[in-house]
TrEMBL record:
Lineage: Bacteria, Pseudomonadati, Pseudomonadota, Gammaproteobacteria, Lysobacterales
UniProt entry tagged with the keyword Hydrolase: yes
UniProt source species: Aerosticca soli
Cofactor(s), names only, from the UniProt record: Mg(2+); Mn(2+)
Signal peptide: none
PANTHER family: MITOCHONDRIAL COENZYME A DIPHOSPHATASE NUDT8 (PTHR12992:SF11), NUDIX HYDROLASE (PTHR12992)
Keywords carried by this UniProt record: Hydrolase, Magnesium, Manganese, Metal-binding
Record PROSITE patterns: NUDIX
One of the Pfam families matching this protein, by short name: NUDIX
Gene3D superfamilies for this protein: Nucleoside Triphosphate Pyrophosphohydrolase
A single MF term (Gene Ontology): coenzyme A diphosphatase activity
Domain spans labelled Nudix hydrolase: 38-172
Tagged with keyword Hydrolase: yes
Name the record gives this protein: Hypothetical nudix hydrolase YeaB
Length: 201
């Protein structure tokens, strides 16, 4: 099952040789909230731990952070000038945030870029993570690391759709609830985009 799952995911992705450029897939939506100004480049690691039941690696951010405190997120962050590409950003940030050894990660491909209300353009890097990879979260940034089975995300019964009001406008949203963790915002949208590309949404 694991090999089949990773094969299906890899077929749904943009190739590593072609990082997404230009517009984010939700840019028209974001234009209504934050205009057409420049977006700050960032990347996240959509990591799936290998095993008979592949599992997404997610974090809960520290409650004391100045931005997005306490929220669930993929490991990742802003692109630094020395980062060669989004893969380099995602691997560097994952090592800094959760102690993930880049040697234990096999990038598979990209999802389309996603613009956030905070002005970032996130490039999701989807990757396999070795089953035996050890995670050591940095307490200043990450309160917890947890794992969500791919099968849970693929089950339509676990996807909740709702509408959020922001700046006087209504915005369609998706979220997942897993073992007390609320997965919403950009993180849920990225997962939903992966499901859409796989034909499960």
């Amino acid at each position: 099952m694991s090999a089949d799952a990773f094969d299906a995911i890899a077929r749904a992705l943009l190739p590593l040789t072609e990082p997404p450029e230009g517009m984010a897939w939700n840019q028209d939506d974001m234009r209504a909230w934050i205009g057409d100004g420049p977006r700050r480049p960032a990347a996240v690691l959509v990591g799936l731990r290998e095993g008979s039941q592949p599992r997404f690696l997610l974090t809960r951010r520290n409650d004391r952070l100045s931005a997005h405190a306490g929220q669930v997120a993929f490991p990742g962050g802003r692109r630094d000038p020395q980062d060669a590409d989004p893969v380099a950003t995602a691997l560097r940030e994952s090592q800094e945030e959760i102690g993930l050894d880049p040697a234990k990660v096999t990038p598979l491909g990209y999802l389309e870029a996603f613009d956030t209300i905070s002005g970032y353009r996130i490039t999701p890097v989807v990757a396999r993570v070795a089953a035996h990879a050890v995670l050591r979260p940095a307490p200043d940034e990450v309160a917890a690391v947890f794992e969500v089975p791919l099968a849970f995300v693929l089950d339509p019964a676990n996807l909740r759709r709702y509408t959020m009001e922001f700046a006087g406008r209504h915005r369609p949203m998706v979220e997942f609830q897993h073992e007390g963790y609320r997965i919403w915002g950009a993180t849920a949208a990225i997962l939903h985009n992966l499901l859409t590309r796989m034909g499960h949404a």
